[in-house]
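TA notes, week 10

Several of you asked for a full example with nothing omitted. So below is the full record: structure tokens for the whole chain, then the designed sequence directly under it. When grading your own attempts, check the secondary structure regions first.
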């Protein structure tokens, strides 16, 4: 990979103590080596809790690039002093959840993401959570005897379940492939664009979203979180599910309306809800874990965090920073 050795001189006005900020606990620092060749200080931050807006504002005040691999939100406030920031390289696809797009556009900051990741990390995690919820494994951990009270408490085998997938992109297709070919499940899907190629290859059936919700024993949400999909799974959709349905959302929490989720859990329409990553600003969501804690499995946005996936995303993000700070274009630009 070619780099400009005297990167600080190339950037002109932002010489001084200019730095490249790197956030995220799962990043192998050896993969950051090309960044050091640019002539800037490389500063890892936020290895524990996500940075607050105030802390991020301080870190970005003298940054030329920001490799975003953590959970912090790049808000208007966080960018207030980022006069020299040229690029934010986001690790992952759903940058809109973590970056105020309007704010970066006003400042002329380029944003890249890492679309060329393997779908296996999220797919295998999602299927693991389907099994986890269907078999209610956490409730049995640490017990010596199952303590069944009657036959109605026995779980069903996965092959008996009808799986509905909302979003048949790269990851959704991988999930459908494993479930249909590996477990013999009946799988239907909803996608904005029909995937007739996958219908033929995997024996899938396309259904409109309300019909899919009504048909499914397990409803898997696998669409990106953005303005178009926020609240996509709402009262209209969750009001159609049959009692005991399992909802698995390993996309973004915002795709599921929290009030609709609460009402569906309270009514018993949803037997279980599984989320990877959770709501940040919702008064309703704060009560969900207290009210339905034994029927909600929540993890901290870890589905894509495997060694292999993180290495692939880090390499892509580093390459984007090197390209853009050297004045070249980059194939992974999503905001300019």
């Amino acid at each position: 990979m070619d780099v400009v050795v005297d990167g600080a001189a190339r950037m002109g006005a932002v010489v001084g103590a200019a730095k490249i900020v790197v956030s995220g606990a799962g990043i192998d620092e050896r993969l950051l080596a090309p960044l050091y060749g640019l002539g800037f200080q490389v500063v890892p931050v936020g290895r524990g809790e996500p940075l607050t807006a105030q802390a991020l504002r301080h870190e970005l005040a003298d940054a030329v690039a920001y490799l975003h691999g953590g959970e912090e939100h790049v808000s208007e406030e966080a960018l207030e002093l980022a006069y020299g920031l040229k690029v934010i390289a986001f690790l992952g696809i759903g940058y809109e959840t973590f970056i105020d797009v309007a704010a970066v556009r006003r400042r002329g900051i380029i944003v890249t993401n890492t679309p060329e990741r393997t779908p296996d990390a999220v797919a295998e995690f999602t299927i693991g959570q389907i099994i986890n919820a269907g078999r209610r494994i956490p409730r049995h951990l640490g017990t010596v005897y199952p303590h069944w009270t009657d036959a109605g408490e026995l779980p069903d085998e996965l092959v008996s379940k009808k799986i509905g997938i909302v979003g048949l992109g790269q990851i959704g297709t991988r999930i459908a492939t494993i479930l249909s070919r590996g477990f013999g499940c009946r799988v239907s899907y909803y996608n904005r664009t029909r995937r007739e190629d996958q219908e033929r290859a995997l024996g899938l059936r396309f259904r409109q979203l309300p019909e899919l919700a009504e048909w499914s024993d397990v409803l898997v949400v696998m669409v990106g979180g953005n303005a178009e999909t926020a609240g996509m799974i709402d009262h209209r959709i969750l009001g159609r599910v049959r009692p005991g349905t399992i909802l698995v959302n390993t996309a973004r929490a915002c795709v599921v309306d929290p009030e609709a989720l609460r009402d569906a859990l309270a009514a018993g329409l949803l037997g279980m809800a599984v989320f990877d990553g959770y709501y940040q600003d919702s008064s309703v969501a704060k009560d969900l874990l207290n009210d339905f804690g034994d029927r909600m499995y929540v993890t901290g946005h870890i589905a894509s965090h495997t060694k292999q996936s993180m290495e692939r995303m880090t390499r892509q993000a580093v390459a984007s920073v090197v390209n853009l700070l050297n004045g070249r274009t980059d194939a992974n630009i999503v905001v300019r």
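The chain has 13 helices and 13 strands. Use that as a sanity check on your answer.
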